[in-house]
Amino acid sequence: MSVERSIAIFSPGLLGGSLVKTIQQRMPGVEVRVWARRDEAVEEVKNLFPNVVASTDLAAVIQGASLALLCMPIQYMPGIARQMVACDLADDLIVTDVGSVKGQVVAELEPIFQPSKAGFLGSHPMAGSQHTGLAHSRGDLFHQAACILTPTGQTKTGHLGRLRTFWQKLGCRIQEMTPQQHDHCVARISHLPHCMAVLTTLAALKQDKRVLDSSAGGFRDTTRVAGGDPDMWAGILMQNRAEVVSSLQDAASVLLELVEMLQTMDEEALRRFLAQAKALRDLLPAV
Amino acid sequence: MSVERSIAIFSPGLLGGSLVKTIQQRMPGVEVRVWARRDEAVEEVKNLFPNVVASTDLAAVIQGASLALLCMPIQYMPGIARQMVACDLADDLIVTDVGSVKGQVVAELEPIFQPSKAGFLGSHPMAGSQHTGLAHSRGDLFHQAACILTPTGQTKTGHLGRLRTFWQKLGCRIQEMTPQQHDHCVARISHLPHCMAVLTTLAALKQDKRVLDSSAGGFRDTTRVAGGDPDMWAGILMQNRAEVVSSLQDAASVLLELVEMLQTMDEEALRRFLAQAKALRDLLPAV
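Structure tokens for the assembled complex are given below, as produced in the milestone run.
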């Protein structure tokens, strides 16, 4: 039996919808409730998940929940958290999020819940898609995904263990970092690749998009994530801007090295440079 | 019935091997011969393709062929072409290649065949993989791939039409460009994405490769081609260095724009920048 009795999901997009599907599959008997801002979104949830309680009434959704997951864009989280803490919360409530940036989120949300018996603890399941919205949600989105938890000195007793158990039941591999380590790590492994896909698309096609007629798998894969939602990604990159800028500066520096090798025709150095990248990329297990 | 009677393939790697498989599937009745530099490679070909004549004897392989395909790294092509032209060549022989760079290749190879009745005409099927070697060859590698042909004022009568027909039978969509237009186009759509995948890998992992434990699909896809063969890619990038440097300089310039938006916290400009990339990337049909 699950230690969670009732799970409240705030905002039914790709991640929120995939959470509902996965919890229903993997945690039978646990009640799931969904809060959405708009009536239309509530109707969509009710149509897709007939067994789920869905409402625009935040107080009704959070009442009695043992776990609440914030799945809206990061910038809206503090406002929702302040509405939440004014409600009647269960003593054992853990509030977490699924946001891609942690430093600022944890710094803002943790103090909001500090005076209550509930507590905030950040989560970041490394799962997503260039597609967004409830319609793209999947029951296998979290399967074998890394999920980073970001406990702090203020994290309440028992919360870390319960949250680990929850994400593990959903199929995730758990990692723990401070919010700052998290932001450094995901800038390198997620935000930088996103930026590079965007830059590759622009540099390849801005002058003349007809070159697209000759494209093959290399262009397709290298630029796939540039099809992601611009509003969501503008929020993420802006929130993590210091770490993102630092990783982009490292990319600019290796770019200049590469240009230098080509201009001086140093084929031997170029071969070593490409071999170093290959050795690093080959560390990733094949799927 | 095919207009080609006997097709000679020089070097049985990923592309050479995939050519043998595809020709056997799609052009039944056409003789296929394979030349390899090493005895071991000849044996490997004979084991994989019992109906194919394979030899290290270049003169024997080219004799009577109506089409010869050069599939070795670009830098070895002129040497092989000079050995070829000293042999007994059929009057209707078309020599082509599958190399990723055309300006220098065409400038070197076309004059070698000019005095003979045979003629050179460049081809570039936009098909490949991060994996190389005969063992990875596939009968569907060319299916719906773009294939760029690079005729010049010296291209002999009838050769362009025959070569179009050949690649179409293999499943390719044909494009025609000058060798210079080709090198500009593939620098943007293929060589730049390759470089960006390499740079993303290095900038993400050089400092601390443990961030790889948190990687997801974005890093995987954006960096996939960085696993390609360093020797082959050093040759390609070096041969097309002027166009590659120019596209890298464009990438550096959009990179600096992005850093500037983040540093000045211009979220509105960032959103437009990401939306522009998304609009361009969305032009690519979904697979």
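The mean pLDDT of chain A is 95. Strands of chain A lie at 6-10, 31-35, 53-55, 67-70, 94-97, 119-120, 122-125, 146-150, 173-176. Further analysis is deferred to the final report.
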